[in-house]
Design a protein that fits this description.
- The protein is α/β, with parallel strands linked by helices and about 250 residues long.
- The protein has a single domain, classed as Rossmann fold (3-Layer(aba) Sandwich).
- Helix content is about 35%, strand content about 15%.
- The protein contains 7 helices and 9 strands; from the N terminus they run E-H-E-H-E-H-E-H-E-H-E-E-E-E-H-H.
- The strands form 2 sheets. It has a 7-stranded mixed β-sheet, covered by helices on one side.
- Strand 2, helix 2 (about 45-55) and strand 3 form a beta-alpha-beta unit.
- The protein starts with a strand and ends in a 5-residue tail after the last helix.
- The structure holds 5-O-phosphono-beta-D-ribofuranosylamine.
- 5-O-phosphono-beta-D-ribofuranosylamine binds near residues 14, 15, 88 and 179.
Length: about 250
């Protein structure tokens, strides 16, 4: 199977971009894609610096932040991009691009959807809304992207506990750690073609089984252990899928 050519769009520091790069490196020949391009609406984005440091082409998209750069549509076409990852990208992606990449574009949101999403719900505002609501669980949601902010089919959500005394910063840091473990794994599955999106916008197959979802994120555990929990939950779904395939 040929590897997908992936573009990552990011407006900020790019820690999720880094998590994807690190995970793909760790997967080695098993990785289903290569990040060949990082694009940002902010010329000073840390994500662009991370891309250059990794030897990946880094470009600026024309936007409200910069008068220089190209339109996103032209950029992804020029670089023969197969899949797009939004990793902290704050601009609405033009409908022409979301349509062309339906089922091939994913985003990570730092809170449950649809409850804590939509226009203007990003960064600290998201965590503030979660804290104000009094819910006991937050956590990252990875979803396909359509032309509405935070709206496409949810692929995976990992509950992260909200702790007594949390503020926006402490909650954001805990959720971000969970994002770095979940998002690259989902990116790999999408790149590998394991998660088809149906024509009606629903997910063809779940990422996790409802009855075998990973335990809630436990901040006391180390990343390797947490990663194994995610992998075990994903394996449960793959096994269930395969056991449904009729054998002759
Ligand atoms: C993350 O919290 C992500 O959920 C949101 O934007 C933030 C990006 O952080 N979409 P980083 O630039 O990846 O560090």
């Amino acid at each position: 199977m040929s590897r997908k050519r992936i573009a990552v769009l990011a407006s900020g520091g790019g820690s999720n971009l880094q998590a994807v790069l690190d995970h793909f490196k760790q997967l080695g020949d098993k990785r289903a894609g290569d990040v060949v391009l990082v694009a940002s609406d902010r010329p000073d984005a840390g994500a662009l610096r991370r891309a250059r440091a990794a030897g990946i082409r880094a470009v600026t998209i024309i936007s409200s932040h910069t008068a220089l750069g190209d339109e996103l549509e032209a950029i992804v076409e020029r670089h023969s991009i197969d899949m797009i990852i939004l990793a902290g990208y704050l601009q609405l992606v033009p409908a022409a691009v979301t349509r062309a990449y339906a089922g091939r574009m994913i985003n990570v949101h730092p809170a449950p959807l649809p409850e804590f999403g939509g226009a203007g719900m990003y960064g600290k505002r998201c965590h503030r809304a979660v804290l104000a609501s009094g819910v006991k669980m937050s956590g990252p949601t990875v979803h396909f992207v359509d032309e509405v902010y935070d709206h496409g089919a949810v692929i995976a959500h990992w509950p992260v506990p909200v702790r007594e005394g949390d503020d926006e910063g402490t909650l954001a840091a805990r959720v971000l750690r969970a994002e770095h473990l979940l998002f690259p794994r989902v990116a790999q599955a999408v790149a590998a073609g394991e998660l088809p999106l149906l024509a009606d916008g629903r997910l063809g197959r779940p990422y996790f089984r409802d009855d075998a979802a990973p335990p809630p994120f436990d901040p006391e555990l180390d990343d390797d252990t947490l990663g194994r929990q995610l992998d075990a939950a994903r394996a449960a779904q793959i096994n269930a899928q395969e056991s449904r395939i009729p054998t002759i």
